[in-house]
Design brief:
With about 575 residues, the chain is an alpha+beta fold. It contains 18 helices and 17 strands. The strands form 4 sheets. Strands 2-1-4-5-6-7 form a 6-stranded antiparallel beta sheet.
Length: about 575
């Protein structure tokens, strides 16, 4: 419950402090006096984002502070304990809003963060103003209202937990399947490379040998002619070198009988002759080996071209090709079997998916029952709020699954989101004979205000929020309707701390506490003040609300009668 609110240097508010207690508290005042600024301040203390534009002109910073009573074992108490705060001391939230946009948050005197503030104050107070009315028009907010009413927050949270548990399993399975596909593609490439290299059956230095053979084949005719001429000169032709040396050897051998010094020379010539004969024999053998076959040259060229292509693909040399083959074989041996991992991941995903699907079915069935009951209660409450014969219906709509939707997220051709299968749509027909239309299509501000009030009233016994602030609850209404709205607010105040900003005396008269917000100008500056009103002062304020700026005795008498009722 909100105990005290202090505002300094905020917009047109110089220094303002309000103490609150249980029951229905009314805030009234002239248009533009600063009532909405107070609501804005409360919003900031509950975690809304601040802006330097709200700092009072000429001041360095604005200071907002609120004190709340915190119930033991409440959500706020648990979050405070996690953040290192003692909830038994209550909650004091302070925000310093700097004109330089460097803002600070303090919780129980300790510097804190926006995230911590928002977490602690999430269920402390509810502000039903223009933004709340607009929020009610959103389908996600309507589904949340239905779930609150039906007591479905816990199963909704369980479903959300299963949904978010399933998401990484879906991503893991998809990643493994992509890895398997990538691995299959990689295996296909490795196996192709292995087959290609092994099929080539490359010998060590084969390219060098083939290059030499190609050189010989290209010059085979020249080689044949040259060697043939050499054989003829050395051995075959008349007067060949061998023949002449043989004659020289015989002559020297014969003369060696005369002069023994020639005998060894004759032996050397004979030895040389034998060597030339051997050389001639080798040359003749060479002539038999020399090929002039064009087909063989084509074969060599093709083989060299094939080796060159392999060298370009696998490293530039025969040695690099062999090294690449060794690496390919090593990679093939290391290739893991992903089938087991995929099977395990699919089993985990399908198991969580089955739990999620069953949870979604159960939640949807319970929502359908709650939707009928809530719609009926809203119709009854609107009837008491002078909207007789209003028809109200809550439609539950499902999102169709697409062809690419993961089957684990599908129930009866509908896709499961983190809130379940359903989207809620509040439909209303405020006048007899009209067709049901979405709540967002309501043109009357009074009808929307009363619908918001009806929903708040119905949720009062289920809502854990202790403080409810109503701004613009009187939009578009007056007279007898305002009286009914006032009674409904007083009824809500039996269970909640209700703070209501209103312009209508029929609502204000139901307040347990009443504050008047006053705007004044002094020394060229506009300032907002607040004062509690009771007794004659409250009669005067109710009279002002009835009659305007000039308060007459008649208006005072009317105000007194209103308050006496």
């Amino acid at each position: 419950m909100l105990r005290e609110l202090s505002i300094r240097n905020f917009a047109i508010i110089d220094d303002l402090t309000i103490s609150f207690t249980r029951g229905l508290t009314i805030l009234s005042g002239e248009t533009g006096a600063g009532k909405s600024i107070i609501i804005h301040a409360v919003n900031l203390l509950l975690g809304s984002r601040a802006s330097a534009k709200m700092v009072r002109t000429g001041e360095a910073s604005a200071e907002l502070e609120a004190m709340f009573d915190i119930e033991p074992n409440s959500h706020a108490a648990r979050i405070m304990a996690q953040a290192g705060h003692d909830a038994s001391e209550g909650l004091i939230v302070q925000r310093i809003i700097s004109h330089t946009d460097r803002h600070r948050i303090y919780i129980n005197g300790k510097l804190s963060t926006m995230a911590t503030l928002s977490a602690i104050t999430a269920n402390l107070a509810s502000i039903s103003g223009q933004h709340a009315h607009q929020g009610l028009l959103r389908e996600d907010e309507q589904l949340l209202i239905l779930d609150h009413y039906g007591g479905l927050i816990e199963p909704r949270q369980q479903l959300s937990a299963l949904y978010h548990q399933l998401q990484p399993l879906i991503r893991k399975l998809a990643a493994l399947e992509r890895a398997k596909q990538d691995q299959a593609d990689r295996l296909e490439l490795l196996q192709f490379q292995k087959k290609e290299i092994e099929a080539a059956a490359i010998d060590v230095d084969e390219d060098k040998k083939l290059q030499q053979e190609r050189q010989i084949l290209k010059n085979s005719e020249t080689l044949f002619e040259s060697v043939h001429d050499a054989v003829e000169t050395v051995y075959n032709a008349p007067g060949a070198v061998v023949e002449k040396l043989t004659a020289v050897s015989r002559q020297l051998e014969k003369n060696g009988q005369i002069d023994q010094q020639l005998a060894p020379l004759a032996a050397l010539v004979q030895e040389a002759t034998i060597q030339l004969e051997d050389i001639a024999g080798e040359l003749q053998s060479y002539l038999q080996q020399v090929q002039t076959d064009e087909n063989r040259l084509d074969t060599v060229e093709q083989r060299l071209d094939a080796l060159q292509k392999l060298k370009r693909k696998y490293g530039g040399s025969i040695e690099a090709i062999q090294a690449h083959l060794d690496q390919v074989n090593q990679n093939l041996r290391k290739t893991r079997n992903l089938d087991d991992e995929i099977a395990q991941a699919r089993e985990s995903m399908e198991d969580v998916g089955r739990q999620l699907q069953q949870c979604a079915r159960d939640l949807s069935v319970r929502r359908q029952r709650a939707a009928k009951t809530l719609a009926h209660e809203i119709e009854q409450t609107l009837d008491r709020l002078k909207m007789a014969q209003t028809r109200f219906e809550i439609q539950l709509i499902r999102r169709p699954a697409g062809p690419q939707t993961q089957p684990a997220l599908v129930v009866e051709d509908s896709v499961i989101a983190d809130t379940g299968l359903d989207q809620a749509l509040f439909m209303i027909a405020a006048n007899v004979g009209e067709a049901l239309k979405p709540l967002a299509a309501i043109a009357s501000g009074g009808e929307l205000s009363r619908t918001v009030l009806a929903i708040k009233a119905i949720l009062a016994h289920r809502d854990t929020v202790k403080t409810v602030v109503f701004d613009e609850v009187d939009a578009g209404i007056g007279g007898g309707v305002a009286e009914v709205v006032g009674r409904k607010l007083a009824e809500l105040a039996e269970h909640h701390q209700i703070i209501c900003i209103t312009h209508l005396p029929q609502i204000a008269r139901h307040g347990d506490h009443h504050f008047q917000i006053i705007k004044s100008v002094a020394e060229g500056r506009t300032t907002t003040h607040i004062r509690p009103v009771s007794g004659s002062a409250r009669i005067d304020e109710i009279a002002r609300m009835l009659d305007g700026e000039t308060v007459t005795d008649t208006a005072r008498e009317h105000a007194r009668k209103l308050l006496d009722r």
